[in-house]
Amino acid sequence: MQIAIYDMDRTITRSGTWTPWLLFWARREAPWRLLLAPLLLLALAAYALKQIPRARLKEIGHRLFMGRRVSRQRLVAAADAFADATIRDNVFAGALAQIAADRAAGLKLVLATASNEYYVGAIAARLGFDATIATASRWTEDRLHHRLGGENAYGDAKRVLVAAWMSRHDLAGAAFRFYSDHVSDAPLFEAAAASGGEAVAANPSAALRQLATARGWRIVDWGVPKHSIFERA
Question: Does the structural domain 3-220 have CATH classification 3.30.390.30?
Answer without folding.
Answer: no
